[in-house]
């Protein structure tokens, strides 16, 4: 399992750097806009930080989508999350996702996203309990916004209270694409 985790982490880092470089390159010059394929690719994703008492959480989740037209888009993403609570546990989560977006009208969006995550939890107790497992999630969502910014809510239809890294099957989302 360490080999799989290491491999996912390497791919996550490579794709993150690629997305950052490509989006920076897009702003610096319009060479990609001359190519019909790259002119329809948009980059974005999410960044998260959480602090509370002895708890820390950090997430980096880059995404890229291809817009087939003004209504349909399909994309891929990566997810890397680290959580820790002092003297209780540490967890590392890495994974990938596939997302489909449909805009029935310009300001509304319906989405479906399949996410596959490898969860590695290490508990700091006398029992030495550690867990490493794969967790799938299938989110169906709806949002409101504009071309670059979308906010809404999504529901994990595969939610498992005992294994999910999320506290609830319902969760808000914010999507930003450039």
Structure in words:
This protein has 178 residues and is of the alpha+beta class. The protein has a single domain, classed as Porin. It is built from 1 helix and 8 strands, in the order H-E-E-E-E-E-E-E-E. Strands 1-2-3-4-5-6-7-8 form an 8-stranded antiparallel sheet, covered by helices on one side. The relative contact order is 0.14. This is Alpha-ketoglutarate decarboxylase.
> What's the shape?
elongated
Order of helices and strands: HEEEEEEEE
What is the end-to-end distance? 35 Å
In the sheet with the most strands, the strands line up as: 1-2-3-4-5-6-7-8
Biggest sheet record: 8 strands, antiparallel
| The number of domains | 1
Task: Assess the beta-strand content as a share of residues.
Answer: over 45%
The total beta strand count reads 8
Structural class: alpha+beta
Supply Rg: 18 Å
How helical, in percent, are the residues?
10-25%
- CATH C-level name: Mainly Beta
Mean pLDDT: 84
Low-confidence stretches: 1-11, 19-29
| Helix count, DSSP H or I runs of 4 or more residues | 1
Per CATH, which architecture?
Beta Barrel
Kindly report the CATH topology: Porin
